[in-house]
Amino acid sequence: MNSHAAGTSNGGSGDAAAGGAARRNTRMPKYSKFTQQELPACKPILTPKWVVSVFFIVGVIFVPIGVVSLLAARDVVEIIDRYDEACVPSNMTENKLAYIQNETISKECIRNLTVTKDMKQPIFVYYELDNFYQNHRRYVKSRNDAQLRDASKANQTSACEPEKTTANGQPIVPCGLIAWSLFNDTYNFTRGNENLTVDKKDISWKSDREHKFGKDVYPSNFQNGALKGGATLNPKIPLSEQEDLIVWMRTAALPTFRKLYGRIYFDLKENDTITVRLNNNYNTYSFGGKKRLVLSTATWLGGKNDFLGFMHIVGGLCIFLAFAFTLLYFSKTKDFSVLAKASVYHYFSLTPYTSGNANPICGFGRKLGDHNYLSWNRHPAGR
Amino acid sequence: MEAVTRLVKIRTSKTTLAIGDGANDVGMLQEADIGVGISGAEGMQAVMASDFAIAQFRFLERLLLVHGHWCYRRIAAMICYFFFKNITFGFTLFWFEAHAMFSAQPAYNDWFISFYSVAFTSLPVIALGVFDKDVSSRVCLEVPSLHQDGVNNVFFSWSRILSWMLNGMCCSIIIYFGSLNAILVQAVRQDGRVAGFDILGVTMYSCVVWTVNCQLALYISYFTWIQHFVIWGSILIWYTFLVIYGLFSPAISATAYHVFVEACAPSPLYWLSTLMIVVTALIPFFVYKISRTLYYPQYHDQVQRANSKNW
């Protein structure tokens, strides 16, 4: 490593050396601000003023955002109804698994929901599952994107174990566990005599519909095996129009998740009774899962989420800290503002190592040592 | 000479520095922990055997007091910060595993993870390690006792290393649980759509990149155009990468296809929660820094403050 200290154009060198360098042919490298690390810079120092202003600004920004978010969350009306326990007939509550797997028992279930506040259209219908790990690695892997996109790649079923091929080796389209476990409960809504139709178009993301699921890919050999995991698919409808499948295959992040089932374009009034005729087909009993039906409105912020209201707690905390620091600043200011100015003049001398440094005091009353006692300050001879 | 050096080294277990300019000093220079060779009248043998080479004896003062102080501080800070940023990132993955049945499902798209240390957080660390300065060279020469910081191992003590790691853990906890609660389970946009695995990944990752880079901005004390460029540039690179990667066909980009442009960017919830989570994650360090530099200043803090004209 060479020439760490080669460019001593500032600081530390005496007059004789500088004079000598001018006479000799010097090999000093060319001065540049970059190599001498003297680029123009701002050197922020944490002073009480900075602290107070930063906290105050953060508080002033956060509190209104938090309040606005809380108000938006309060505007959202949500009706949640857990139905997996309630929809099991009373004579089979001991053996729910037998109930759900028995195809002869009717799975139709009637639920009544009461609207707690006025709900403006569009009202979103979700199904919420609990304890369903769509984010398990083996599950997430179990799909073949090439097959979903392209009809010619129907034979590509790698990574789809165990739902790759049928017993005679025919490829399953769409293959994999994610598609196989497609949710198959259905919901029908009526209010009195009025049928509230559910619009099931445009519930999936546009990029999925147009680019990930092909317009010419049709389901084949789907749910043909002995073990049925979920819904069957109409083999005449291409995958890009099977929106329930597309929504389901966008895997969720956590074991508790909601997926969009459809939208209702009717206004609901407070105290309306909505009758839901649902088909309780999906087996969540074998793994202790829960099923819920959710009707919700949405605001500019999305659904009902109080968490952003947390922002205004953080903002309030910041304002409180700003006030606390202001109080501390004013109570101590007598000590250091005067002395800090003195220390700036005394701490720095233009010639190095001269004596005459007064007792520099910085900070909130904490003293530094007296530089007059340093050995090189006792004999102020300079260099 | 090397026997003496070895004796001092072994008996006192201290770091030794040897200076020499001639061929007879080569042994001593190699034996010492740090060898400083002077090039000049006695030839280049000492230079070739040394760790540092200078041209004149008087440059030693600057080497030790200025560059020694700067380099010690930079390297210690860089190592601590490196641990911090990787812990912040890595632990979000661990917390996610608790909710994914410990099945080793990564919370982010594979290429996000690959590029973390390469593109989004590498340059700012280099800027910290190469350019950071707490006091100017003049102050370093005028206050030689700053050099004692290195001798007393102030910047690389175990308490410092562990507190940076603790900071990383706290940041990762705030980021993970913040993203979780902000984005899931309800709709994230006005059109009623919910966030899946991909949106959570993008949100968490953005928070990590912002937090880690802003933490660096809070730490360093010397802002040239280079520091601004690399810190804010790294954040910009992340968003640019996200957009460009999302444009590749789904065969390559898988879960990241269009995720930012279509799903995240139009959602106010995404931006507000990023803002909130990043600021909340930085508050603990900021409060610590305030209490440290204003109420319990160490020697170098006081020198740094006296150096500035702001009081």
Explain what you see.
The complex is a heterodimer of chains A (383) and B (311). Chain A is α+β, with helices and mostly antiparallel strands and 383 residues long. Chain A has ten helices and eleven strands. Chain A folds into two domains: 46-76 and 303-332; 78-297. Chain A has helices spanning 15-23, 48-75, 96-101, 137-141, 145-149, 177-180, 206-212, 243-249, 310-347, 375-378; strands spanning 78-82, 108-114, 123-130, 186-191, 194-196, 198-199, 257-264, 273-279, 290-296, 361-362, 366-367. Chain A has a five-stranded antiparallel β-sheet with strand order 1-9-3-7-6. In chain A, strands 2-8-4-5 form a four-stranded antiparallel β-sheet, with no helix packed on it. In chain A, strands 10-11 form a two-stranded antiparallel ribbon. Chain A starts with 14 loop residues before the first helix and ends in a 5-residue tail after the last helix. Chain B has two domains: 1-55, Rossmann fold (3-Layer(aba) Sandwich), CATH 3.40.50; 61-309, no CATH class. Chain B has 15 helices and three strands. Chain B has helices at residues 2-12, 26-31, 45-48, 59-99, 110-120, 122-131, 137-142, 148-151, 158-183, 197-219, 225-247, 250-253, 259-264, 268-295, 299-307, and strands spanning 17-20, 34-38, 52-54. Chains A and B meet through helix 2, strand 3, helix 4, helix 5 and helix 7 of A and strand 3, helix 4, helix 7, helix 9 and helix 10 of B. Chain A: Residues 1-22 are annotated as: Disordered.
Assign an overall shape of chain A: extended
Distance linking N and C termini of chain A: 28 Å
Q: What is the percentage of strand-forming residues of chain B? A: under 5%
The main pleated sheet of chain B reads as:
3 strands, parallel
Secondary structure category of chain A: alpha+beta
Membrane topology (chain B): Multi-pass membrane protein
GO cellular component, one term (chain B): plasma membrane
GO molecular function (chain B): ATP binding; ATP hydrolysis activity; ATPase-coupled intramembrane lipid transporter activity; metal ion binding
Transmembrane segments (chain B): 75-96, 111-131, 164-187, 199-222, 229-248, 268-288
